[in-house]
Each structure stands twice: as C-alpha cells, then as structure tokens.
Amino acid sequence: MTGMLSGRTALITGGAGGLGEAQAAALLADGAEVLLLDNRADGLAEVAGRLGTRYLVADLADPAACIAALGRQADAVDILVNNAAINPLKPIEAYDLAEFTRVQTINATAAFALVQSVIPGMKRRGRGSIINICSVTLSGWWADMVPYIASKGTLLGMTRAMARELGPAGIRVNAISPGAIPTPLEREVWADKLAEYETYLLDRQALKFRGSADDIAQAALFLASDRGRFITGQNLVVDGGWWMQ
Predict the structure, then answer these.
(1) pLDDT by residue (tens digit) across 141-195?
(2) Are 237 and 245 in contact (CB under 8 A)?
(3) Domain ranges for the chain
(4) What is the bridge-based pairing of β-strands 54-57 and 33-38?
(5) Which residues are catalytic?
C-alpha cells in the first residue's frame, strides 16, 4: 500500500487492543509496516491477525528482556509509539513501593529503554518520530492515581528533553495526552462508576460527545508522518476541550 509512511516501520507498545490497535490501523492505512508489542499473547495474536501486522510478545515490566526480545528489529524502526501503560487506582497509603516501581517501569522506564534501542537506526537514516502517550491526568484533578500520574510526568519530561537532544539528528519526539477515551482500561478502572464518570466528563468537555480511539490514532498518524515534520517537543492534548492549557 502506498502512502506517506510507505517504506517506514512503526513499533507500537500495548498493541493488543484499545488505543494501540487503533494506532496500528491508522499507520497501516498510510503505508507503514507495523510491529505490535504486548505481553498479552492471545489478544496480541488476534489483533495482529486481524490487521495483518507482525507482533512480539514481551513484558515491559522487564525492559532488558523486552529489548533482548526485540533484538535487531529495533534497527529498522522509524516510528516508535510508547503507548502501553497500567493504571492501578488506590489511595497513596495503600500502595507499596514495589507497586509504585512497577508502574514506573512499565509506563516510563521501558519507554526510555525502547528509545535507546531504536535511535541508532534512526540516526543513521537521519529521521525518526517518537510518540509518547501521556495523559490529561497531569492536570492534577484526580485522586488515587499517584503512581500512574507520576509515570506520565516522567514520560512528558523525557519527551521534551529527548526532543532537544535528538532534534539535530532529524528525530522528532512528541507526546499525545488523550482525554477520556472509551477503552478496556477505562472500563476496568471505572467499572462500578462508569455512568457517573461519563456524566462528569461531558459536563466538563467543550465538545459534548465521547472521543474514540481513532481520534488518538489520527493524532499519532499526524505526528508520525511528514505532516508534522516541523513539530517536536510538544504535548498534543486530544480531549474534546476538557483541559485547556
């Protein structure tokens, strides 16, 4: 398939459904070859089979093992989307340090490790696009999510620092902060309060409808391609006008 991303390879973490699947579909439609990474083997194989992508079963909780599993495939990556995340929901005092560390490892440390693994190839080709999926929760409006929000703050800080350092090599680094997008993770986190949560959201959004995974995917497509060639170090908030910076 021809398109602006024809001849380019994208690596998307958290590809076994939700935002990752939608991002993969959008990049595929624009001509990219896509490699999906997730630790959920059954779901990942199903999504990859449906879309016609390659996939790698690996656990971001062990970044070193994940990089080892990726191996030489990292050298071909032109587009990296650090999409995978976990989001436990408990009061501060209910977390132990192991839980806090696990969230940081999966949501931020693994993203750093993946960036390290793909930038040699990007530098050699003189181009690349790294997209970190952050969150509007950084606005500080939510309780019981300290480890998750801390990890997204780290990811946003890395986005800006990496953009500055990698820009001279032709590598762009940006973040996308989704608003409230219906996903399996959202249903899991807000399981017994979903109707109340949706009412809360629509009261606060400027646009009075729920967004979709495809809204985030189209933002990722824009930043991944040469359409966004002069954009780096930015955080694109896609939230229907909920949080206005």
Answers:
(1) 789 999 999 999 999 999 999 999 999 999 999 999 999 898 776 777 777 888 8
(2) yes
(3) 9-183+212-235
(4) parallel
(5) 148
